[in-house]
Amino acid sequence: MRSKLFSHLCLAGALLLLSESASPADSQLRQEARARRIAYLQRATEGVTLLFNRRHRELNEYVPDKNFYYLTGCSEPGAVLLLIPGKEGPRETLFLARRDPKQERWTGPRMASGRETARRLGMQEVLSLDELPDALAQRAPPKGKVYANLPTGPHREAAEKCCPEPWVRLRRWLPHAEILDSGPELAFLRMKKSEWEIGKIRRAVEITIAGHRNALPAIGPGRFEYEVEAAIEYQFRSRGATRPAFPSIVGSGPNAAVLHYAENNRRMTSGDLVVIDVGAEFDGYSADLTRTYPVSGRFTPRQKEIYNIVLAAQQAALQQVRPGVTFDSIHQAAVETIDSRGRDRQGRRLGRYFIHGTGHHLGLDVHDPVSDRSRPLEPGMVITIEPGIYIPEENLGVRIEDDVLVTRDGYRVLSLELPREVDEIERLMRESLDPAGSPETGGRARDEAAMKTQEVGGS
Ligand SMILES: [Mn+2]
């Protein structure tokens, strides 16, 4: 008995080694995905789950469906995952589109169905998509529940109009089934990150910090916002990020007060603040970091005042972060700080200028889905803390955003190494200047007056 088990283990080990020799990173990803399917099926004990890997229509490039990817570690276009709970153990089947050698000349090789792929993916079976209707007819109860990654509720009509294919197929396959959203159950699992996932987010954060640091020499009067964007995204891609996790925001002057400004085409002038809200995506995971810099290299007294209120609000919010707490109390701490300090030109409190939430979950999506907004924080969750004040009448916008891991006894700021204090920011901006102003770097000198003040101040 023991020796038989031992030989099984050896065989399994050998197979594992074989697959690992192909790519250790892939094999780790697939072990993660396997553990997630087990966790999912422990919760989804009724009905069947069907996840389509649908193309993201709004994007030119191919981005897999995040829920599909979460449970498979695979991004094959057009693939479908079928999960069926059962008394003798769950059954998991991945269906892959039939290969098309002619098409592959254009778009590259695709995975083939069969045992070899099943072994590589750590999946019970991998069949051809043609076999899905029969498999469903045989295995799924005809009037049962089907949890699918198709929007329900208010978004359904628009989504079905845009991309009717999965609905049409699902109704043909299971005309009497009740179609439900797999989203909440998957969000519940996705909210808590594994060590492996936290490692990926840490890397995304590191790359994003490098982007922010590289932004500084490109900030200055006369320079364009897009130069800053390019300096940041150059660092992202050169350090192995897949892409920006969302359109980079570089908003100076009046644009600093526009939350989702992404045109990035304004010429910066002395006296502006510039809000830089960017994030790299690394191995599917996102970072999301915002800093606000003075274009001249120095904050004006008013800018400094507002900046320090936002910074204090961020500190107050951070102090709330620990297991058991909800976003409501985190937000309240930030709002109270902003509302109790400073005034606008009419002498009113500043709370009215803090017009967004204090944070969100971070993961495979920048705004990672939540199963329930009132679910308290737990160790292993990763969130952002990002208060801001935006006063359009004063051409003034300040946001400070960091990425934060919830730990057993509190929190850890993953982006601690990116400076956020006024003094540090002014010093870094001074250091990023090239006083010689050579032809290539001529644009770097912020302005002479500011330079002189800094020299006097620095001595
Ligand atoms: Mn954010």
Description:
This protein is of the alpha+beta class and about 450 residues long. The chain folds into two domains: about 20-190, Creatine Amidinohydrolase, Chain A, domain 1 (3-Layer(aba) Sandwich); about 195-455, Creatinase/methionine aminopeptidase superfamily (Creatine Amidinohydrolase). Helices cover about 40% and strands about 15% of the residues. The protein contains 15 helices and 17 strands. It has helices spanning about 1-20, 25-45, 65-70, 100-105, 115-120, 130-140, 155-160, 165-175, 185-190, 195-215, 225-240, 300-320, 325-340, 420-430, 450-459, and strands at about 50, 80-85, 90-95, 125-130, 145-150, 180, 245, 250, 275-280, 280, 285, 290-295, 380-385, 390, 395-400, 400-405, 410-415. The strands form five sheets. Strands 4-3-2-1-5-6 form a six-stranded mixed beta sheet. Strands 7-10-11 form a three-stranded antiparallel beta sheet. Strands 8-9-12 form a three-stranded antiparallel beta sheet, with helices on one face. Strand 16 (about 400-405) and strand 17 (about 410-415) form a beta hairpin. Helix 2 crosses helix 3 (about 65-70). The radius of gyration is 26 Å and the shape is elongated. The protein starts with a helix and ends with a helix. Manganese (II) ion binds near residues 288 and 360. The site of manganese (II) ion (MN) has 5 residues, from loops.
